[in-house]
Predict the 3D structure of the following.
Amino acid sequence: MNDALRMFEILPQFAAVLWKAWPKDMEAARLGQPNENRFSLSGTCPHCSRASAFLMVTGAHAEEVFERASCIGYTSWAVLQCQACKKFILGATFGPNGDANACRYVEHYPLGRPNDEAPLEIPENIRVDFQEALRCRFVDAHNATVEMCRRAVQASCNYFNAPSGKLVHQIDWLAAQGIITTPLKDMAHRVRLGGNLGAHPPEDPDDQNIITIGSRYADAVIEFTRDFFQHVFVMPERLKKFTFR
Ligand SMILES: [Zn+2]
């Protein structure tokens, strides 16, 4: 088993919340009489991030939905207003034929903004790299995500004055100096390996053992990077603030 495979041998289930507003948490309800085609949505607002209700401020535009040449229902689009911040979204619901009261949420725009918040204790030049990784993840740019995480970890090595050279040796150097512990060293190496996978195309694209960096791996690398920063930057700064002396 090579390093890259070993890296993801045990992959925890990450439930990373990468969005300020998770885009699929809306619920739809039909309003008024069935023939009015009015509906409301409720869920997290992509503008103000609050749990809110969205009411129609325009009439609905309905389009028939076909399956195997027969109409199975219609999708309705309307502009809706957040009752918390009064900003607008475009929402769509589906109403099946034969059930005038049924109304199912389909999608809405905007989806929300990427949550690229990172602790201020992380030095700025490193933090911006990590924030870029989070924004890459928001648009499912998984290879770019892990590459930016790797870059942020390498910037951390430079911050601690690791001798310039390959990242693998820089990480080992930090551990040898006692700057990072063994678990942190392992974590940094995983980010490095993930970044390498994202940065380099496989020599043999038909190799069955190739790891493709998808959402799970990208989320894992983000969490490893976040944990690494938590230990090397965030915790030391917080300890300085609260000495209890
Ligand atoms: Zn709102």
User: Anything to note?
Assistant: The two ends are 51 Å apart (CA to CA). The chain has two domains: 27-109, 115-241.
